[in-house]
Design goal:
Elements (H helix, E strand, L loop, with lengths): L8 E6 L2 E7 L5 H4 L6 E7 L1 H11 L3 E9 L2 H12 L3 E7 L6 E6 L5 E4 L22 E9 L7 H13 L3 E6 L12 H4 L4 E5 H8 L4 H10 L4 E5 L5 E5 L3 E4 L13 H14 L4 H16 L13
Parallel strand pairs: 1-4, 1-8, 2-6, 4-5, 8-9, 9-10, 10-11
Antiparallel strand pairs: 2-3, 6-7, 11-12, 12-13
Helix pairs in contact: 2-8, 6-7, 8-9
């Protein structure tokens, strides 16, 4: 409800890594052997860490559940989280290196990734997630479905159902399905989700639909309560049993780098949700945060300022 003043606690579950960003980058480097870049920088990254950084910068009480390696990169992530007021619950694994992505950003802001499949980027396993959850948790966001090979639909059912038993609002972001999963395969897990985030391609792949509105309807038929589809420069499409509509993107947005834009979008939505805002206002603020993200180099660079 409007006017909600109690500081809600938000738990984010997912990946925390480092990104090495190069901009602009193109295939000519493979012909010339070297290529001048306007920007080369290191940034905190990973779906969950990006969301946590944005929420922390917006003054939210946020806890991060993740896994990092026992190495310099892992220690850096832990130190940076603590500097920014993020309560980090991390399992450190000696034999797995902390994930580091090389992000090649084109002139149009679109990016390509070089990733290490053996690092912690995809290393979260069911045993890393502590349940039951902290009794003071109000909102849980799993970011993102399909990132972690060892967390299957049945594990998501366990995570989400436990959260609902505790009265926690359940949110989940998506990435592209990895093993041909369908909406029917994910139906039980999705039935516990209050707010599901996906981009158009992700939603259509999972449902088998070619139209995002039909994809949203199929996801709602899985008993997901709200479906929010990120549409890039067009804004987002919001759908529930009661209403469906587009929320236009921020005007005058300049795109430098799309890395982490979806994470900032989701974090913005969670921020407004934690303040009791209505669905439309949550989506508007999500668009605003996504727009800020694409205007800076790095997943959450626009929000990465110590508290």
């Amino acid at each position: 409800m409007e006017g909600y003043t109690v500081m809600q606690k938000i738990l984010i579950i997912g990946a925390a890594i480092l990104d090495i960003l190069v901009r602009p980058a193109d295939a000519s480097v493979f012909e010339t052997g070297s290529h001048p870049a306007e920007d080369i920088c290191m940034s905190l990254g990973g779906d969950a860490l990006n969301e946590a950084l944005v929420l922390s910068s917006l003054g939210k009480n946020v806890r991060l559940e993740t896994v990092v390696g026992e190495d310099c990169a892992g220690r850096f992530i832990i130190e940076q989280c603590r500097e920014r007021g993020i309560v980090i619950e991390q399992r450190q694994i000696r034999k797995i290196p902390t994930g580091i992505n090389v992000v090649l950003v084109g002139k149009d802001g679109e990016r390509s990734f070089l990733t290490n499949p053996n690092g912690t980027l995809r290393g979260l396993v069911p045993g890393d997630i502590r349940m039951p959850f902290d009794s003071e948790t109000d909102i849980l966001c799993f970011a993102s479905i399909f990132v972690f090979p060892q967390i299957k639909a049945e594990h998501l059912v366990q995570i989400f159902s436990q959260a609902k038993k505790q009265g926690i609002t359940v949110c989940a972001d998506m990435t592209k399905r990895k093993c041909g999963e369908t909406a029917q395969d994910m139906q039980e897990a999705l039935s516990y989700v209050d707010y599901l985030f996906a981009n158009e391609e992700e939603a259509c792949l999972l449902t088998g639909e070619t139209d995002m509105k039909k994809a949203a309807q199929m996801l709602l038929s899985c008993k997901t309560r709200h479906v929010i589809i990120k549409c890039g420069a067009r804004g987002c499409f919001v759908s529930s049993e009661k209403e469906s509509y587009m929320v236009p993107a921020e005007k005058g947005t300049v795109c430098i780098d799309t890395t982490g834009a979806g994470d900032s979008f989701t974090a913005g939505f969670l921020c407004a949700l934690s303040e009791g805002k209505g669905l439309y206002e949550c989506a508007r603020f999500a668009n605003k945060c996504g727009a800020k993200a694409v205007g800076a180099l790095g997943g959450a660079a626009w929000a990465s300022r110590p508290a």
